[in-house]
Amino acid sequence: MDDTAARAAPGPLNVNSLRWKIAALVALAACGVALGIGVLVHRSTFDRSLALGRERATAALLPIVDAYRRTGSTGGTFAADAAPPAALTRQVRRSDQMATWYDDGNPEVPWMWAAQRVDGRVLAAQVDMGADLRSLRALDRHIVMASLAALAVVVPLAALAAELPNRRLRRVARTARRIAAGDLDARTSGRGHDRAGSVAGGRRGDEISEIAATVDLMADSLRDRLLSERRFTADVAHELRTPLMGLVTAAGLLPESEATDLVRDRVGALRALVENLLEISRLDAGVERADLARVPLGEVVEESVARTGLPARVTDAGAAMTETDPRRLDRIVANLVINAHRHGRAPVEVAVEGTSVVVRDHGPGFPDAVLDGGPQRFRTGAAERGHGHGLGLTIALGQARVIGATLTFANAPDGGAVATLRLPVPHPAGAHATDHTNG
């Protein structure tokens, strides 16, 4: 995986990953369930405590009422010499029925009152509810601790359970990135057509399996189309070569005239196009091999620029001996210089330093399509970059791969297109030259 793909892949601590989103969702759901159950248990326990308090207060009031009716005495009516709440007194005075009242004016020492009017007098009894309140608070603490303990177990388990689908999705994403980078043999399952056929045949797994199979099917389709395109390009180039040779011969036999010059020029352009198509077909087929030799990089570049017949300023800032295929290097440099003149503006500068060759023009620069996805055949990228078939940069990029070099495209900050060819560092003397061949 390249650096870009590595940066795109989410790490285990990435909070935006699906694993942690699932874990957060499970945690929220668990908190919601714990809160709902906690509130339900708290309310149910509190209501039960009030019911028991009412029973106890009523039981404490009944002997007082019986004693008052028998003896008319009010002794021991009020516990702790306290008077009943005014609201309870008003409620009892409106009715002869017994009534109860929960007094939580003091949160630490709540009371449950029971009162009844007998012969115009309000008799009352109170029961301490402090023990019930403390028991309720202890229950709340136990619910909170149990909920936290459950979360401490559930959240890691949810993260672990989410890791399996997350890992499968990452594998699908890695495969998609490899396919986008040009590796059309990459597959999520390693079974290629078998996996894709499971979708077409109706044998479906889960959603991730369907996504993986669809990615494999897409890769198969892209590979087949690309191979078909390459075969078509090679077949067309080969089929055109025979009649083209006849055209070249016939053009050479024409009498000299302005029309003859025009015909020869167009035939020459057609011949160059066919030769470029044949070269691309060989590069696509992977049959090209580099014939490496130790050469002075600066001299080879100067000779390549001179053979183009186009003006370009060459600067040699300490270029050393390098091991490469001089014929393919010449092809790369010539294509870059021709492309700079065709699509850019003068002056064209070629800088050689170490094992790098930089070709720059002062035109509008490379279009975004070339910067993002690299050059594509029969596409120049933008109308303002002039005419052409889009084959020069494609051939240069393919030849660079053959000799083990890297070719990158960028735009200068002050304007102009910049193509940088980086040759591999020469290996020590005595090593095999075939180490740098790129099959």
From TrEMBL:
Q: What is this protein called?
A: histidine kinase
Query: Which InterPro entries does the protein's record reference?
Result: HAMP_dom, HATPase_C_sf, HATPase_dom, His_kinase_dom, HisK_dim/P_dom, HisK_dim/P_sf, TCS_sensor_his_kinase
Q: Where in the cell is it found?
A: Cell membrane
SMART domains given for it?
A: HAMP, HATPase_c, HisKA
Predominant localisation class: membrane
Q: Where is the Histidine kinase domain?
A: 235-427
Q: Which residues form the HAMP domain?
A: 167-227
EC annotation from Swiss-Prot or TrEMBL: 2.7.13.3
* Primary enzyme class: transferase
Organism equals: Sphaerisporangium rhizosphaerae
One function term, GO molecular function aspect: kinase activity
Tell me which UniProt keywords the record has, alphabetically. Answer: Kinase, Membrane, Phosphoprotein, Transferase, Transmembrane, Transmembrane helix, Two-component regulatory system
- Could you list the residue ranges that cross the membrane? 20-41, 143-162
Under catalytic activity, the entry for this protein gives:
ATP + protein L-histidine = ADP + protein N-phospho-L-histidine
